[in-house]
């Protein structure tokens, strides 16, 4: 069956308006704050501009004020938003809120959607997704989950420690993964819980100092201690949390790729402008063979990453699990984006290293993506296992 990557005219128009907003409104703010903006005033200012431009929350349904884009539509628009570090924040498509909205749309009850999803989609509140734990707990292997949920009268008590919980500082609620049956290492037995920030049993312990700094609300270590929630806090069904995690994590990996691809394009454009104007040894940089090779390799990496992202989106839009295609796209894109930003910085020389342009910030921001959402090594392991299984089945 043919793979169709054609953009609907309405999606193309939305992408164009997003690009205009990013260049005219978002990038000037980004340049003023060095790409790191963690104030509510900035978030509200940018999101108001996106609403005025009619590009806010393009991923959620129209009943929630969005555009209801499918994954292929998101790929086009999210890439344009990602052209700035603050573009996703402006459109309300930044991690972890974007992935949480998708999960809530699919899994939440009508009451949960009204209480949590609707204000989140409107940008009135923020959220976090509390799954990752300090070693030996859940990380690249979610089955190592140690946080425990114990049944109590009328609800559940959560106990455990989480870390690298993006956006948790200032979030209105968390979606917490906890074990309701089995032991660490078991493939099932996890449940998702909606926990309000006002719950005294959920405590922010610290901001973790990291290479990247642009994601709103930081990377946080959380403690769940005697954290009691009602039965209505269960998201989906008890013991089905790992299944629901795949509802969120597969698309969320790809939307990360879309956003970072936009930033890779931005880095390439900065390098192209510099190469066109900078003269050394009697020639413009753009006329030198080694620089031309870096420019060409950037174009190849950007085009290849976009193709892999769109292929994965096409499979997801068809209702397929798309495990192989999302792992391939995530691994390649994370490494390709790093290569593009690194080459772009090299082309710009001392200017690239300086704080006068943002390439140094971009490099710090994209490097952790080779670890977040599953390290490249874990995805390669999964890709290889699937390839071997597929070959074994076809050879029978």
Task: Give the SSE map.
Blueprint: H1 9-33, H2 40-52, H3 71-81, H4 87-91, H5 97-107, H6 110-121, E1 127-130, E2 148-152, E3 155-166, E4 173-179, E5 190-196, E6 202-207, E7 219-230, E8 234-235, H7 241-277, E9 279-280, E10 283-284, H8 289-317, H9 323-353, H10 359-366, H11 376-394
Parallel strand pairs: 1-4
Antiparallel strand pairs: 2-3, 3-7, 4-5, 5-8, 6-7, 9-10
Considering the chains and any ligands shown, give keywords for the structure.
11 helices; 3 domains; Butyryl-CoA Dehydrogenase, subunit A, domain 3; 4-stranded mixed β-sheet; alpha+beta; 396 residues; Butyryl-CoA Dehydrogenase, subunit A, domain 2
Return the average pLDDT rounded to an integer. Answer: 96
* CATH structural class of the largest domain: Mainly Alpha
Order of adjacent strands in the largest pleated sheet: 1-4-5-8
Give the % helix: 40-55%
């Amino acid at each position: 069956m043919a793979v169709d990557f054609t953009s609907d005219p309405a999606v193309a128009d939305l992408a164009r308006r997003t690009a205009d907003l990013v260049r005219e409104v978002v990038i000037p703010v980004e340049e003023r704050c060095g790409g790191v903006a963690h104030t509510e005033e900035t978030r509200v200012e940018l999101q108001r501009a996106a609403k005025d431009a009619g590009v806010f929350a393009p991923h959620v349904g129209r009943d929630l004020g969005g555009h209801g884009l499918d994954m292929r539509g998101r790929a086009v628009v999210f890439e344009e938003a990602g052209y700035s570090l603050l573009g996703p924040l402006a459109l309300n498509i930044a991690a972890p809120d974007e992935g949480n909205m998708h999960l809530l749309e699919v899994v939440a009850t009508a009451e949960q959607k009204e209480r949590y999803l609707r204000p989140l989609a409107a940008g009135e509140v923020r959220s976090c997704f509390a799954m990752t734990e300090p070693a030996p707990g859940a990380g690249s292997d979610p089955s190592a989950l140690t946080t425990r949920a114990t049944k109590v009268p009328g609800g559940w008590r959560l106990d455990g420690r989480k870390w690298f919980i993006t956006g948790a500082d200032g979030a209105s609620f968390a979606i917490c993964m906890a074990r309701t049956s089995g032991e660490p290492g078991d493939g099932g037995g996890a449940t998702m819980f909606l926990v309000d920030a006002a719950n005294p049993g959920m405590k922010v312990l610290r901001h973790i100092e990291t290479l990247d700094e642009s994601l709103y609300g930081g990377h946080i270590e959380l403690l769940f201690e005697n954290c009691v929630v009602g039965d209505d806090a269960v998201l989906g069904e008890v013991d089905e949390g790992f299944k629901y995690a795949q509802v969120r994590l597969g698309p969320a990996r790809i939307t990360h790729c879309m956003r970072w691809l936009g930033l890779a394009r931005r880095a390439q454009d900065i390098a192209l402008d510099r190469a066109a104007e900078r003269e050394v040894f009697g020639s413009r940089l753009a006329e030198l063979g080694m620089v031309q090779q870096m420019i060409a390799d950037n174009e190849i990496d950007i085009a290849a990453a976009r193709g892999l992202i769109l292929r994965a989106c096409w499979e997801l839009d068809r209702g397929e699990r798309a495990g192989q295609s999302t792992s391939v796209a995530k691994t390649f894109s994370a490494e390709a984006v790093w290569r593009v930003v690194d080459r772009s910085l090299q082309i710009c020389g001392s200017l690239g290293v300086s704080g006068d342009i943002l390439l140094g910030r971009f490099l710090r921001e994209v490097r952790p993506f080779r670890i977040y959402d599953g390290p490249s090594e874990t995805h390669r392991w999964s890709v290889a296992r699937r390839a071997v299984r597929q070959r074994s089945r076809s050879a029978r």
